[in-house]
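writing this on my phone so excuse typos. first protein, seq and then structure
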Amino acid sequence: MPRLEFSHVHSYASSTEGISLPVVLRSGGERIDLFASVDTGASNCLFERAHGEGLNLDIEAGDAKTFSTGAVSEDDCRRSNFPPGIT
């Protein structure tokens, strides 16, 4: 039978709604530590504009994309391609 092994284990409170994990975003020499809500079925990761600016990313140079959710009818976002290896 196949077996999965992980180098890190993180426990989260099952009493709270959703899953939040510690995340480190890096770009160049900049680093931002934060907790991110995880949606295991999501096709995109969304972070506050301030996080991208804190990494010195040119937000306006990203591709514009509009998201619709149950809570918000439309939210304009910019897509920035992070290099592989975000931890």
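second protein below, same order as before
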Amino acid sequence: MPHAMPNAVKRASARSATVTNGEMKRGLNSLASIAVTAPFIGFLGTVIVFFGSFRGIGSEKSALLISWAKALPESLVPSALGLAVAVVPFYFYRYLSARLESFGIEIKNASLELVDALANFPTRRWL
């Protein structure tokens, strides 16, 4: 039964790596959610501001064009803010995901080295 110990160490290190990886990925979903929803919220703000500018306008075409010309730059501000808010969490999500992936590879390599070292470790039998 000399191979039982390395197999037990492999299983224990795999469990530990899985738990550690799950704990480190805990906040990444929040970053991804912010990065995905912020542009849509900005676009919603754009639509609300743009259509809100048409209140109180009569049926004259010149007033409509003037109102539209004023509302267009104002209505793009929420979209720009939504995109600006989304860029930062997206950057950190990508950065942290890449770091966690490389860290997971390092953990697997270290556990394999440990198993190899334990497999080659001489055992003594006391009589």
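The chain has one domain: 28-120. thats all i got for now
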